[in-house]
């Protein structure tokens, strides 16, 4: 690939929170090597160590090697942790106090790959906090070559899976729960490596009272069974069927890089990520209080979470702070506020005791601990934390976002409050004779889409508001 096309490719694939693009046409070893060199410069890694890991995609080992090569040219030493989940790479970054790069395109199809980068201690890097600088420096290296330092860095292999599994076990004790049968759909992603280590005995840890029925644990970056994106209902169908067929207590579905986890109950019905966020928030607040911590306890939730999440947090005596949607944004807020936990409705869950980073496996363990400590079915437990009607996220292609906003504001002026923390949130004025409602409309960072989320006190009210707003968006 020539210099000009490589430069154009890099400019196109640096997103708000990570690097992501098509393998071969956009993401190449040449581009990745330049990014590796630029990353080493940005985190001032000359003479110190960075962590490089990768998922099971066919292109990932080559890209990880290219990134390491670029970083070593700029004097960084590399701890190559090989195949890992994204939260496993965060563990390495946190436990080693080292910057890290993870090669994955998460839930995207096999034709994509990407890089998630962190500063030491698993602190996120976004466009506003270093990713733009990495891009610009890498563009210079693509144009002029990468100058090698006098002392090139070294590389060593490092296996962190066992330590990662043991650390998660230390945070959530599952040894005393009642026996549970769980179907786990790894989607041919990295959950096929981490689930046997954390919930099973593959890492040499004691057996837990869990019978795991595996679905698609074979690591395969071509995703032969279904896309590793549990946010899409079609990708949960196999798990839902298997839970019912096996008479399991619940099911877990991980995305491609296994940093997000979705839950289905014993009937195969999906449990909303907001309900999971409320359950985990309550457990974390209770744990922190029991440990003797005093003072204000803060929990974050993003603005498309169900109202039950802040209600649960505040009822437990903690402070609920509403945030914008977005991975690096939440990680920054976790650090700024000292929050013990943060939940996103996209099924990202962040933990203070995991360096403020997100960890789907840890959230799943909290659900297992809570569910396994009582006798009711999961559907009954989840119902407690799902009292309201949610629409789920609905995407609409929109050419003129500003015009759509204007139509919405004109329609609801005098009937609702408006909030522009992230896109447009509209909350209906409280009336004693009618259920509450609110909706959020946010533009996509990467596509000409508006994303709509609606919640109301009843399903009929949610559907009424949903249909009214969709008509305005799509007018």
UniProtKB/TrEMBL annotation:
Claim: Magnesium is one of the keywords in the record: yes
Start and end residues of each Alpha-D-phosphohexomutase alpha/beta/alpha domain: 13-128, 164-268, 276-386
Domain annotation Alpha-D-phosphohexomutase C-terminal: ranges: 393-471
Transmembrane parts of this sequence: none
Keywords from the named record: Isomerase, Magnesium, Metal-binding, Phosphoprotein
UniProt record similarity statement: Belongs to the phosphohexose mutase family.
Name listed for the protein in its UniProt record: Phosphomannomutase/phosphoglucomutase
Protein source organism: Orlajensenia flava
